[in-house]
Design brief:
Blueprint: E1 2-5, E2 18-20, H1 23-33, E3 36-38, H2 41-53, H3 55-72, E4 76-81, H4 95-104, E5 114-116, E6 124-133, E7 136-146
Parallel strand pairs: 4-7
Antiparallel strand pairs: 1-2, 1-3, 5-6, 6-7
């Protein structure tokens, strides 16, 4: 079943993408939740026209994302966390803390666009991936230190 996405869905696609999904997933989840529409011929034509009209706007958004990525560059963030003597963190470091650290550096990145390569539960150096745009992904290193 082909579906045109109305919103970005992690692991599936971005807004305006034509994706092929299993019929049950499309009919029972994507379409009722308003995340997509059936890719009929008329819907494909409407989406193509919308893509043409939004092309220059999307280019500006992509350039802004590239500008944020170059601004961040090879920056290394320091995230303070309460930890025990063995170095194990009480709780874990979340995307909210990374977004807050980036905000303190002057970069506004939505926490939903940040993902970790592995869970952060002990002190040390880690890598996070920033999904700034569907064409712009940036890796940032951060160090978790005892607070």
């Amino acid at each position: 079943m082909e579906v045109i996405l109305k919103t970005d869905i992690a692991g599936l696609g971005y807004k305006g993408d034509l994706v092929t999904v299993k019929p049950g997933y499309g009919r029972n989840y994507l379409i009722p939740q308003g995340f997509g529409v059936i890719a009929s011929e008329s819907n494909k034509k409407v989406q193509a026209e919308n893509n043409r009209q939004a092309a220059h706007k999307a280019d500006k958004i992509r350039k802004d994302a590239e500008q944020i990525a170059t601004g961040i560059g090879e920056m290394q963030l320091t995230i303070p966390a309460k930890a025990g003597e063995s170095g194990k963190i009480f709780g874990k470091v979340t995307t909210v803390q990374i977004a807050e650290a980036l905000r303190n550096q002057g970069f506004e990145v939505d926490r939903k666009k940040i993902s970790f390569d592995s869970e952060v539960k002990v002190l040390g150096t880690y890598t996070a991936t920033l999904d700034l745009h569907k064409e712009v992904k940036h890796k940032i290193n951060f160090v978790v230190v005892a607070a």
